[in-house]
User: Fold these one by one.
Assistant:
Number 1:
Amino acid sequence: MVFHTALRALELELEPVNMAGFVMNQPMFGGKRRTRSEIKFATDQLVPLPALDLTWELALPVGADRDHVYCNPVVDGPHRRKVPLLGRFLVIGFEGDPMFDRQQEFVKMLVLCGVRVMAKLDEIGFHGIDLVDPRRARIIMSLIKDFVRR
């Protein structure tokens, strides 16, 4: 939602509001092709693959597949022309998240399009770790504060 909101905001006259940056904490992405992290964590307790697939089935327009731009923003399409116009992004992800590979692909796409990205892709952690580990929640909040202050 953050990515698509950022794209839509480009079309609006928001003065005096300035969208200086966007925070994506463990963003949910998908696609038809299965990634290594999706396969590795297919039976994840928090976000198993069948739950992810069902979420996309319910969220996407009727007849759309998981390579629809809302699910898979790295696919080619007219939205890609607008990506270089976006402000800064903070993307936070953890290697134990089934969507980790897609988060990395998203960061790569942003960088290749010239977007300024602060990526915190941590080897230790899982989707939702900040909900169960107060120390990790504080670290994430600190990252967000640092990003906002820059």
Number 2:
Amino acid sequence: MIYKITYQETKLRNPKREETQSLYIESDTEIEARSLVETNTPFNIEFIQPIDGSHLEYEQKSPDFKLTEFAK
């Protein structure tokens, strides 16, 4: 399953909507996706959303779509 994770780059500042970024990760579960991001980045995770079907097709059309890979 592919998950879209929205996040702030740091946990030290208050979140600002204008600074929200996203990444895409392939994982078996939402819990595993969260764990991979928390272990490998300093990001403040805001939301994790599973995407598939037409939503995935739409996201893949974006030039910013790229699967992020972390060592498990």
Number 3:
Amino acid sequence: MSFFISCSDDNTLPQLTGESKQFNLFAKSNPAISGTVTFSKKNDNTTLITVQLTGANSGGNHPAHIHSGTAAESGAILLDLTSVNGSTGKSETTVTALKNGSPITYDQLINLDGYINIHLSGTDLATLIAQGDIGVNELTNTSKTYNLSAVSNNAISGTAKFTKRVNGKALVSIALAGTTTGVSSIAHIHLNTIAQTGGVVVDLTAVTGSTGKSETSVNKLNTGVSITYDELLNFNGYINVHESATALSTLIAQGDIGKNELTSTSKTYALNSVSNNAISGTAKFTKRVSGETLVSVSLTGTTAGVSSPAHIHVNTVAQGGVIAIDLTSIIGATGKSETSVNKLNNGTTITYDELLNFNGYINVHQSASNLTTIIAQGNVGANAGSSNIVNYDITNIGSSSYVFNGGGLTNGNNPGLTLQRGKTYSFTVNAPGHPFLIKTVQTTGTTNAFNTGVTNNGASSGVISFTVPTNAPNTLYYICEFHSSMTGTITITN
């Protein structure tokens, strides 16, 4: 009996261990083409690299390489891969060493500082059809997107997306709509908030006008200080995108980032007309991620070329009070200003939540050279909804005196009053037989009555309203029509 034994070398060839790592390849010049690259470990510690694309052109061959660095940075070729077959979208390469001859293992490859490029053809290497970061540069699913708002051109706006890499670094991807083909728009991360402004801390890749996009791998500031994705999400900064290298003063988009990001939490207060009925608007308080506040003033009816100082004061409009916070002056051409607020003028810190409970009001003045003229004002914080009108309740003691209550007075007999130009005061009179008159001279009778801004002057029962005009004299008087002892001085101030 004879026995025949067949020998095969199959079992002696390197075999796949089942251990593998897959990375994504994203579309570049053709949105229909994308895929994956899979690194598979063999039992001899070599690596099978398999590229699989969908949407590739049938019949074409697409050169492929592993490069050093990230796709955003670009780098030299480390390894030539087998070209991708356009008919199948596939290529396979067994790797034992880099292009320079240095041996490389599976574990080293999946932790490589690199990326893969797939080119359109051997004669058109400049056109990429797919690309992806690999190894420590792989992008995770962790990301944060910030809004970039229009500045000089309302048609241009977009986002800045921060994506975390496996190594903890960040990819900053800007995507704008409305950009112009052929124009390269410079972009930076700056220190502080947009409202405060600050120096450039990170140079970003310029935005390509034809696509509106740019990508920058960020792992350090311009000073060389390292910064991670997590640190960027808590960074005190903002992004500016400039029109071009020759028009850096023209901003096309910008947005606060990191801890300065604006939340959806806000409160809007009315700013009412004072000296000019055509001017009014709002003050919007918006909460930042840090808990600080962006105060945005928006007025209609302002004059181009005029800069109007603005402040938050202590107390209500009716009471008046000292300045607590200086705000950015309103630009006449736009009627707008923005101020990042985190402390009072005296250095005391104040948060958004504390501002919403602050005892204050806002004044907007006509100009730095005309601070006495207020163009808009309104109560804010704890005083929101409070009347801007100071009211005095007036009764009488026989024919000897008027008695005032309210407006800071308690049972005041014929008190002197100090009223401010531009403000409104009401006198609720309950003194039958004693008509209450505002006059330019301190005499009884109805002559010399001051009626500018006054309604119902001379009432003995009812409400007299007085909006003090800007041209009111420095001194007026209140007096009973019939009794000279029922009188007092009104001092008019700014």
